[in-house]
Amino acid sequence: MAMGSGFSQETRTGAFFMATLLIWVFSVLWEILINKRKELFPIVLGFIFYQSANWVIPKLLRNRDPLFVNTCVSLLHSSTTSASVLFILVNQSMLSNGVNVNQMFEHSQLVEHTWPWAFTALCFSCGYFAYDQLDMLLNRLYSGWIPSILLHHFLLLICFTLALYRNVAINYLILTLICELHSVFLHLRKVRRMAGFRDCNGSIFVKVEWVLNWATFVLARVVSHILITVKLIRDASKFDKGGVELPLALFGMAGMNLLNTFLGIDLFKAYRKEMNPQRSRQNHHD
């Protein structure tokens, strides 16, 4: 009876997130087709691109494990998004042509203006999150009554698409995507271990991987998100009174900072386990 109840609850969870995803799809298509928002079409292109990668990767790597394929596509997204964000920032700084680079991060620039390619990059990432949500739902790559990964994607799709619909705070959201630099090494480690390279104590490659993992975690995820949060708080008076932008942004950044804390704890545990495999085995046997 308990097992049946648990299965029923998990099924309802999947049905809920599938329903919200379908509503999101309908909303996006309505904006593109009915409201003639052609600038949102990269969302569709992003979905097609990553879904195509999901079909191609099993043939190239000869591994059809859904979790492995999903992780490889996530690695592709992190790499693509990281490169896009860096390109956007460098390009904008070059366009400043000697003007104080700090002006790039003024409130009006971050909220009211949009850097070249930023809108397209954000649309493309939306397409990925929609693909990833669908892939996890279809292949049951989640667990629990309220899977954190599904909830994470659900909230991101809401925040990103609302910003895209209203064309506000696009640059702020691009800055939050700097964390994808760290995600590259998270997914790389996961792919490596799923490919069978687990006990790599002493490997130079693994040591370098961990150095980059920790460096990007601190700089691209923790520090960047804290700075964005501080910036939001300092510029709170500059947001429109009664608007949803500031509360939504603060809520989103609070969630990201909280997730970063849990991620840091998990990362430290994984680091100790991988750097001390013998001790880990002894503790397991004890």
UniProtKB/TrEMBL annotation:
Stored InterPro entries: TLC-dom, TLCD
Parts of the chain that traverse the membrane: 12-34, 40-57, 114-131, 143-163, 169-189, 210-228, 248-271
Residue intervals of the TLC domain: 63-276
Membrane disposition: Multi-pass membrane protein
Predominant localisation class: membrane
Keyword Transferase on entry: no
A cellular component annotation (GO) from this entry: plasma membrane
Entry keyword Membrane: yes
PROSITE patterns, sorted: TLC (PS50922)
Localization per Swiss-Prot or TrEMBL: Membrane
GO biological process, one term: plasma membrane organization
Keywords (A to Z) from UniProt: Membrane, Transmembrane, Transmembrane helix
Protein name: TLC domain-containing protein
